[in-house]
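dude i think i finally got it to work??
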Amino acid sequence: MSLKRFSKYTTYVPGEKLIVRLDPSTFAISDCERELELGNLMGWVENVSSHKMEYGSAIHNAAAEFVSTKCTVMQAVQVAMEYFRDCGCDPGKDWRNAGHLLMTTNGYLTKYINDPFQPATLELTDDEGKKFKHIAVELPFEIPFRSYPHVDIILCGVIDSYGTMDGVKCFKDIKSTASWDIPKFFEKYRTSIQLMIYAWAMRHLGWVDYYPPALIDGIFLRDNVNKTAKFERSGFIDFEDSQVDDTMDWVRDRCDRIATLLEEDAPFLKNPTRCEKLFGKCKFMNICWEHNETLRDVHMRRLKQVIYDPKTFGTPNNQK
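look at this
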């Protein structure tokens, strides 16, 4: 088995094992093996971050700061603004710019100043084995999941927040969207692979002894800096045991497929039906279909490799 092309992005000791870290997004795109290989396995991302993605990340950072440090709304808003400024993305003429972000972040945090959702305080263990208490926001996890002769797969992720609301233990995820069909937006999360993996992980880690329900904090954006976004929270999204168990069986099956491709040094095949996405073309489309090596190298120059580590949340600290 040749693992040379993967040794740059993950842990590999010659003669031992390849350690592969996969997060829930892996399984959302697993029907295109080539996209999975380039993006999730090899860590190729665009040199310039998507301002739409960074807009949402900035709100997440502000919300985490607001809850964990008990700072003021404006102090947390400043965290969002600094993050968006430092990410280096350019919104151009798009309405998701710094001014719009300021209004949205301020509105969201103000809405939940007296939040009935109360984050838990967890006792965790650091890399040196020392125990410490942590307010349950932005919780990274790494769970050894599948083991093969030459490959170990670790299931990773970051849970936005875990706590209680109305006496019910649950976890919360913040989602921003330009959609204004609020019921339809919330409904799709009842079958979310990401949320079911999170529910499974929380039970596996011993935080709860059942698959906890989820809450979605929906931020429904308006395409005008002078119009306030709408902020709505879903009801409890419950997951039946059989629903989560079936999903995790499917995740194991996908891991088996990934490990087989890696161990046999087999090609990860592209799926032509995945080239055109809802919001545009796949970022790897030109690379996958370009047969001229020189031109393919030109397309590769707009990409960089990022080593996935849930503890750094995809920040520039883990970029190569």
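Residues 1-9, 313-320 have pLDDT under 50 and may be disordered.
im so relieved honestly
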